[in-house]
Fold this protein.
Amino acid sequence: MQKFRNNSSALQGTLLPANTNTGGHIAFYYNLNTDTYDWWKIGYDGAGTMDLHLDLEQNHFNTDYPYINYRLYSDTNAAPILSGTAHAATNTFSLSGLSVGVYYLLIDPGSEPLVHTD
């Protein structure tokens, strides 16, 4: 199982395939490596609404869900077109009126503590 992806910048972001589930780790420490945030690329074809679903796992040290920050950019040199904090088991964000192109999604743990595993 690949624990870490080389997606620490927008250009290295992992492409999110349409209509599929893709897993990731943030706030994660494994084998002397820390994965603090993830960049993802979204190739949008302009057809309909873009729906993003963010499913969170419960914290291992209590039954609460972590606070995860998200930001969606059409240009990483500009302000995000969508941003906020997710805290529920399932979080859905919908955007309409977007242009065809590549979008960049940044997900980070905010102030969540790192999860340590060996």
Remarks:
- The beta strands are 14-15, 28-30, 33-35, 38-44, 50-55, 68-73, 82-86, 90-95, 101-108, 115-117.
- Residues 50 and 56 are 20 Å apart (CA to CA).
